[in-house]
Write a structure and sequence with these properties.
Length: 282
Amino acid sequence: MKLPIPIDRAAILKRYKPIDAHTHKGIQGHALLIGGSYGKIGTMSLSSKACLKTGCGLVTVFIPRCGYEIIQTANPEVMVLTDVQEKYISKIAFDFMPQAIGIGPGIGQELETQAALFEFLKNNRLPLVIDADALNILSKNPEWVFLLPAKTILTPHPKELERLIGKWKSDSEKMEKTIAFSKKDHLIIVMKGAPTFIIDGETIYENTTGNAALATAGTGDVLTGMITSLLAQSYEPIDAAILGVYLHGLTADIALPATGYQSFIASDVIAHIGKAYLSLEK
């Protein structure tokens, strides 16, 4: 097994593309985020706001009907499509061509939602980020993994990873099983933790930013929005994963002197994305 490649500032600057002074929203990418269920619309609020703040020109969310007014009020810059169902997603339908799609935050595991995910995966060819309950639905239906486009990005926390690859007895076994999973289906795995590793076949990257402040509800939803944003801005999948994870961790490093560990919340990641970007421009 190769040693991990550190994701540090020097590595990021080789991948980071500064904004063209003559750009406009139409060429900054259009991202679609799919998720949410009754009581978990906040996941989509966080994810979509992070997507915009990471530089995406246009962001649309697809959510159950119960979330319509919440998202329109919380994130007026975000466009909203709704399912026919009030409390959960039952059929994924949209009439435009996004550059990238993120799916899973707060989506739940209703049987109709599982069927909707299957139909979506069967027909989707667009760059994809999969998180949260969409990962758990995949782990219940492992044969669906072959439907994923090559270089789809999966963002599991340890429990979600265990459901996908099975239990492990040591960190080295966990890494071996994750590499095997990545290679078999040509997937990029963002193995969330301290530190976060990104596995792309045999190649392992180790993030160098972030701290314990990130261990709070919603930071994973924010990361999904950030990576989807970068994909929609036409970064290659591995670059979107690496840059997203680095910036996400960097926000916590920048915020820590003001917030401390205890009071840092997921919205603080979003609030500090601008400063994280500015630190790359220096």
